[in-house]
Amino acid sequence: MQQAKLSPRFACLCGKPHADRQRGGGRFGVQGELVNRLSRRQVFKPMSVIIICRFKVGMEGKLILKDIEPKGLWKQFVSISAIPRCSRHEAAIGDYVRSEAARHKLESAADEYGNITVKIPAANSSSERIILQSHLDMVCESAKPFDFANRPIKLIYEDGKVHSEGTTLGADNGIGVASMLSLMDEQFSHPPILLLFTADEETGLNGAKKLSEKFITGKRLLNLDGEEFGKIYTGSAGGIVTIGTAKIDKIQIPEKGYKIFVGGLKGGHSGVDIDNSRTNAIKLLFEILEILDEKYEIKIASIEAGDKINAIPRSAEAVILTSDSTVKQVIVNKINDLKQTSDENIKLNIEKTDAKDYYRRTFSRKLIRMINAIPNGVLERSKGRVYTSSNLASIKEGKKLTIKTFQRSYNNIDMNTFSSKIATVFRDSGFSAAKEGEFPGWEPTESELLRTAEDQFEKLFGKKAETLAIHAGIECGIIKNQCSIEQLISFGPTIKNAHSPAESVEVESVEKFYRFLKKLIEAL
Known about the structure:
The protein has helices at about 10-15, 30-40, 70-80, 90-105, 170-185, 205-210, 280-295, 325-340, 360-375, 410-430, 450-460, 475-485, 505-524; strands spanning about 1-5, 50-55, 105-110, 115-120, 130-135, 155-160, 160-165, 195-200, 220-225, 230-235, 240-245, 250, 255-265, 300-305, 315-320, 345-355, 360, 375-380, 385-395, 400-410, 430-440, 465-470, 485-490, 495, 505. The chain is an alpha+beta fold and about 525 residues long. The strands form five sheets. Strands 11, 13, 14, 15, 16, 18, 19, 20 and 21 form a nine-stranded antiparallel beta sheet that branches. It has a six-stranded mixed beta sheet with strand order 1-2-6-7-25-24. Strands 3-4-8-5-9-23 form a six-stranded mixed beta sheet, covered by helices on one side. A hairpin with a 7-residue loop joins strand 24 (about 495) and strand 25 (about 505). Helix 7 (about 280-295) crosses helix 8. The two termini are about 45 Å apart.
């Protein structure tokens, strides 16, 4: 593979997307000042977005990101990829959105929770507003340590896809955000548009939960957080986080032990990928620990596994104490057996280590049995699709040992039923149990907005769009309840492996998605 060199013009476009623009009014002042402010805060580094364009040997080096259609959308995506936007850290990206509004002399507003609106006046005689909505934050996952707060995402374009170098790409929901920003530059017939950028979606749809009818007005909403082009979502699963905690009670006696690490797994979105045969690293690790416990009566010294509630864990590690030297071979044999039946690149590392303390033997045994008893994966199906699921998301040591799980269902009663079952597993093992972050499902509905979308899709592409509900948390259900929205649909480009470092977006689908978005808005 050959790597194309960037032209000076393109390097300038990538690294300094705003510095040479005209002055704009509004709360955030001039564009150049915004760049300076963000640079001083170490959240934006001029010349820091790196676009790597790869080609097969012999191809002309013309397919660089700046030439991909729609150019305005990709230009915005390059810009926001230089700005930190991990969940609960959206201040800088919020500043950027409002500065873009000011540059276009558009009215913008922000609420105290970080949600932002931008108003685009009508370009036709229509007076009925359409709301476009995307979330500002992204899941920050990396294959190796990566400072998302101070380093830009490195974008790679190859084989018709854009992905990143070892981190989540942020196409979820960065493509939606970029498309909304790009519309500020478009000239076409459209009704009044309200751009709604929500905060902190990935950790529990928290920005949407804080919305009020005073902040946004309108009866029709297009959510741009879909991940399969050609599908129009008319419903989504609700969710709830069920947490188990226990006091850490360790014996302070230094001993020799083994550090066990399993990783290299695909991970992925804990909703849409839950039925894609993705191994949960925590479950895998504790299957191994159960085998060892039955054979050697091990003691656990430490455990660290998983991270985000909405990401299937890709790695997990534990330090165990045992006097038997054959433990290593037992683990290797288990992993080798799994490799024969798995398409994932399972990685294993075992090394001797020192431990200054460890959990009591009785607690170690309880913990192993409890983790293996917690339901994980698909829990219920209906009409051939996943209806209810659970993700064993993380185990963290701090002042307490904390275990987080995430249940999803289209039915709120079923969701709470399984949450209660998992809470019972926690309590039966001496843990405290609690629930948090509950959000409602979005019941599938027919509407005039949906019919218009289906009609415009067929006119553009000569085939019907698929309409369905998605097994993931989309903000539509919450926004509908909070703000009395009457008609909602959700769609987007094709994004693969969201919430994992393997995330990518299909370039052709982005062009089609944006063309469809504009055509639909024009028809409303």
